[in-house]
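ERR on first pass: missing label on line 2. Operator R.T. fixed the label and resubmitted. Corrected input:
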Amino acid sequence: MQTKLVFVSQQDGQEIPTVQFLSPEGEFSTSGEWEQYLPYVNRLTESDYLKFYRDMARIRRFDNEATALQRQGQLGLWIPAIGQEAAQIGSGYGVGPNDHIFPSYREHGVAITHGIDLMSILKMLRGVNHGGWNPDETRFHLYAIVLGSQVLHATGYAMGVNFDGNVGTGNPDVDQAVITYFGDGATAEGDVSEGLLFAAINKTPQVFFCQNNQWAISSPTKSQIAVPLYRRGEGFGVPGIRIDGNDVLASYAVTAKHMDDARAGLGPSFIEALTYRIGAHTTSDDPTKYRSNEEVEHWKARDPLLRLETFLRKQGVGEHFFEDVKNSGEVLAEEIRAATFALQNPPFENMFKHVYSEPHPLISEQLAWLEDYEASFESEGHVAHESAPDEIQGSYYGGDAS
Amino acid sequence: MSNFVDMPIAKAINAGLRKAMADDPKVLLFGQDIAELGGVFRVTEGILGEFGPTRIMNSPIAESGIVGTSIGLAMRGYRPVCEIQFDGFIFPAFDQITTQLAKLTNRSEGFLKMPVVIRVPFGGGIGAVEHHSESPEAYFAHTPGLRVVSPSNPNDAYWMIQQAIASNDPVMFFEPKRRYWQKGPVNLDEAPLPLHSARVLREGAQVTLVSYGPMVTVTLQAAEIAATEGISIEVLDLRSISPIDFPTIIDSVKKTGRLIVASEASNFVSVAGEVAARVAEQAFYHLEAPVLRVGGFDVPYPPAKLEELFLPDADRILDAVDRILAY
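pass 2 clean. output:
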């Protein structure tokens, strides 16, 4: 007998139906309640299951390594996603090869399902750049640090997909959809509401994927919402569903189905993935100040990785597979570590590049000034300062040009 | 032989938008009440009939949504032109403009271009209620990544809106709303200047008078009156607020030795202040007198019955001319 995950709304005490195929005990259930999603689960092969596990374990090992690198001063900040691997890997693989993804800033798991080099993320958190990958090529757009801002970009992009006629043709090479990720905290931002409204009005091919990890830094979900999040889109005309975000099968199947529906022209939908942020908000945070150990332990027992491992072992997946995954995780951690140590500081010119796409006199002038200023140290027999901006004093412009 | 047509600024912007839309199918217009109504100032009147509802769309009343979705459309390869209904209503979009639109090219290290134009009717003098008469251009000029321009006459309006749409960078396009129905000749064949060049509107010898947008008309009036008193004023129209065409200003100041900067915006931390600072840095030894600013007072834009006192007029500018010549 499987444990059926049941959640209780804070408002009216009613049970909230939640899509789940894999119980916390690692039992698979094919109960008919969610039959529209079953074909998506049933089409998964053994290698898909193993791929899900491998990626979830890989991203967790990466996450732990990144925290260690931050603690050693190699990164300015780290943003852990531990506990959210099923929500991210499952949904990431539910996104098609022509679709576009608009992440927030914790979607490291989604990133690896679409080929983003993990060092691109670490470079950003080390302070080498602000992103810098090509969103057109990767279809995984840049991390958005201003909460909810990316939801409007996703909606505008999806409006463009509509205008271009890349919806509802039935041709898988033509049809496209857009998925945007955001957290429970971001749902309070007006941009999320405006995104839902513009999406509904324009019937965009779009999925709103909300990872409800239950904590917005130190604020619990109950202090931020009065009605369960999966219902947030209803009033705007965007239907919603809640899934067990720690069940990779539910995450994959529901995302894949809703993205298919979006591509087919059925309009936008909202998925609330109920999960839990096992780690801190970021490495600057101390979660022991605002939540109990009991709560964290409760959710550790519902760990998405452990759940999938239990299931796979019951299916007869042998120890050698888990050993292999563990070893490749260690190799990844070593590679990440070495690559982080090898990262070069950016040249000062980078600050002036790409402020504009086209030439701008103020930028050219200030770059020329800084070049001269830096060169002046060398001509005086000193080595140029690595952190030149701290040294700048006075005017950029060098006084009267007369 | 150039083809000149007389039209007011509102019609010149309308004609410029139509030209840009005809030239490039990726140009879309997006904003509140702009389709059937043609916008509250009728700047987009008739465009729905000519181009249809796939090219000009009414948006919900949500300025952040208008700009945020326009960013997404630009990522998709479109060139959206947004209309913000009034200057004082732009602030719900301030976050999307300053943290996203202005920075996405930089964040992506050049992979993303942001060819988005935001049209903003701005400035006072129309007897309006609160939030309908403001001059917020300095907020945007202060933000790296944005370009900020303001035409003062129909010919510039016609050409600058097309140049703004053609730019791969985001452009804030401030329209002088109290001059919308001021007529002038538009040369339909030839652009007068690049988007970011200032223009010497009237040559003079004793004082350089710089302004932009709705204030240009006032500075020309002041120069005309001063001429009857034997005072020779050189009038410059900045046209572009970011970047500012400093060489044209510096050349003029080197000739006249005196500079007055006039605008409707409050003086404190203003575009006028930036012009004054740059002239002090680059033409200090040419100045015969301190740079003076003639602007709005540093108070919230007043109720309509007081706006004539708030807005600089020709007399206020001539008062500054007297002071600067007395040095």
